[in-house]
From TrEMBL:
The chain crosses the membrane at residues 48-69, 81-109, 130-151, 163-184, 196-217, 232-254. One of its GO terms (molecular function) is xenobiotic transmembrane transporter activity. CDD domains: MATE_eukaryotic (cd13132). Its main location: membrane. It comes from Escallonia herrerae. GO terms for cellular component: membrane. It is found in: Membrane. Residues 1-25 are annotated as: Disordered. GO terms for biological process: xenobiotic detoxification by transmembrane export across the plasma membrane. Belongs to the multi antimicrobial extrusion (MATE) (TC 2.A.66.1) family. PANTHER family: MULTIDRUG RESISTANCE PROTEIN (PTHR11206). It is a multi-pass membrane protein. Keywords: Membrane, Transmembrane, Transmembrane helix. This is Protein DETOXIFICATION 27-like.
């Protein structure tokens, strides 16, 4: 200590305090980081489920229509349930996987256009997807027209093959609805408009239950009427989503029909075909199981059990 009393030899005290203060701040930062990490995970999860939650519900609702149709067909008899199961899981299932995979190309293109704020191209991509998938539906149409001989060739019993072929003919409107519904769903998902898909699917599901009950128990139209009710419900989803898009739901991305949709189709076909084949291969494993079950004894019961 200096003799004048004005200077003190305490240079280490502030340094010690500074060092201690720095360590405390570091510990506080670590604690806050861990606490903030949990909060950020919660916030991001909430944002994620806000998007994917309605999308999951919409997919479950639309797929449940097939289950409801099979359930009502089961009240008609074992043969009717087997025919509906073969038609929905094998004939429509092959078509479903192919078109769903091809529509996935639109999700990639629309996602890129949305990120680049090139909203006009999203509507054009949507129309190109409609054109390509509609042409694909025409090419796949013989599978529905000649379902009976195809199923017999695969070893299905004659009674199941005959009725399944008849039901498959009734599913032709459903077949073409997929070419419009899947692109509309991808188009809206790319813009984070998944809630409208969920609401439209929910409405169609409720209508489907009511129509199926009316057809089976009141009008007694049998397995053909049950199949036609599925067509009605799936086209209801198409019209609901389409009306949302054209009636102001997507003012930036939907500006009306354009002749530009007919340009660049070949590049879109190549991208769509690769996606379609990939997803189709994933779906065929289960379809092959159902087809092979038709070769067992008591094929009706075996097909019914496996499809359920």
């Amino acid at each position: 200590m200096a003799s004048n009393g004005t200077e003190t030899e305490e240079p280490t005290v502030p340094l010690l305090n500074h060092s201690s203060s720095t360590l405390t701040e570091s510990e506080c930062d670590d604690f806050n980081d861990k606490k903030n990490l949990k909060w950020r995970v919660f916030i991001e999860s909430k944002k994620l489920w806000h998007i994917v939650g309605p999308a999951i519900f919409g997919r479950i609702a639309s797929y449940s229509m097939f289950l409801i149709t099979q359930a009502f067909a089961g009240h008609l008899g074992d043969l009717e349930l087997a025919a509906i199961s073969i038609s929905t899981n094998v004939i429509v299932g092959f078509d479903f996987g192919l078109l769903l995979g091809m529509a996935s190309a639109l999700e990639t293109l629309c996602g890129q256009a949305f990120g680049a704020k090139n909203y006009k191209m999203m509507g054009i991509y949507l129309q190109r997807s409609w054109i390509v998938l509609f042409i694909c539906c025409i090419l796949v149409l013989p599978l529905f027209l000649f379902a009976t001989p195809v199923l017999k060739l695969l070893g299905e019993p004659s009674d199941i093959a005959e009725l399944s072929g008849m039901v498959s003919l009734c599913f032709i409107p459903l077949h073409f609805s997929l070419a419009f519904q899947f692109p509309l769903q991808r188009f809206l998902q790319s813009q984070l408009k998944t809630a409208v898909i969920a609401w439209v699917s929910l409405g169609a599901l409720v209508v489907h239950v009511l129509v199926s009950w009316l057809i089976v128990y009141k009008l007694q139209l049998g397995v053909i009427g049950t199949a036609l009710s599925l067509n009605f419900s799936w086209w209801l989803i198409v019209f609901g989503l389409f009306l949302y898009c054209v009636c102001g739901g997507c003012p930036l991305s939907w500006t009306g029909f354009s002749i530009e949709a007919f340009s660049g189709l070949w590049e879109f076909v190549k991208l769509s075909a690769a996606s379609g084949v990939m997803l189709c291969l994933e779906n065929w494993y289960y379809r092959i199981l159902i087809v092979m079950t038709g070769n067992l004894k008591n094929a009706e019961i075996a097909v019914d059990a496996l499809s359920i």
